[in-house]
Design a protein that fits this description.
- The protein is of the alpha/beta class.
- It folds into two domains: 87 residues, no CATH class; 50 residues, no CATH class.
- Helices cover 42% and strands 13% of the residues.
- A two-stranded antiparallel sheet has the order 1-2. A two-stranded parallel ribbon has the order 3-4.
- Strand 3, helix 5 and strand 4 form a beta-alpha-beta unit.
- The protein starts with a helix and ends with a strand.
- The structure holds zinc ion.
- The site of zinc ion has 9 residues, from loops.
């Protein structure tokens, strides 16, 4: 006793004696597949069109998949997101987005997938305004009621766009 063969024989004898058979004794049955489709994954991450192909090449270069492979293990997705996030930036055609200074490689996507404006020119304008104000040493924003701000619906929206500057309220 003690060898693998002995154990296998013992198991066989036990199976015969108990008349148990079929899939219910498949103790080492593989876990249900948790693979996901690579293309679907990349699209959900905002990579579409040429950007999708580029993202896929990046994953292949990082050893996370191989050319021709269609599916990727769920356990690799976090790593894949990290690789993509550190190497690529998704920008849209808007000048303020595509001209961004960023060491990462730019891939072009529709505005809705743009990680800078997310399809909202106001959001990007707000980001740039905040950066410009902070760079110039301004930390407070006073919005004067009644001033027309192109595309901005209300003072409150403008406050939301400019984010964590100190707000002094309405003028
Ligand atoms: Zn954009």
């Amino acid at each position: 006793m003690g060898t693998a063969t002995d154990h296998a024989q013992l198991l066989n004898t036990w199976l015969k004696s108990t008349h148990i058979g079929g899939p219910q004794v498949m103790l080492t049955a593989p876990a249900p597949s948790t693979d996901v489709d690579i293309q679907r994954f990349l699209e959900r991450e905002g990579f579409v069109g040429d950007a999708l192909n580029r993202a896929r090449t990046i994953l292949e270069a990082a050893g996370l998949t191989r050319p021709g492979k269609r599916r990727i293990s769920q356990t690799k997705l976090d790593r894949a997101r990290d690789v993509l996030r550190t190497q690529l930036i998704r920008v849209c055609h808007r000048k303020s987005c595509r001209d961004v200074e960023d060491p990462r490689e730019r891939v072009f996507v529709p505005t809705a997938s743009c990680e800078l404006c997310g399809g909202s020119p106001n959001r990007r304008a707000g980001d740039l305004a905040r950066q410009a104000m902070l760079a110039a040493g301004y930390h407070r924003l006073l919005v004067q009621t009644g001033v027309e701000l192109a595309g901005v619906e209300s003072d409150m929206e403008w406050f939301a766009l400019v984010g964590p500057l100190e707000r002094l309220g309405h003028g």
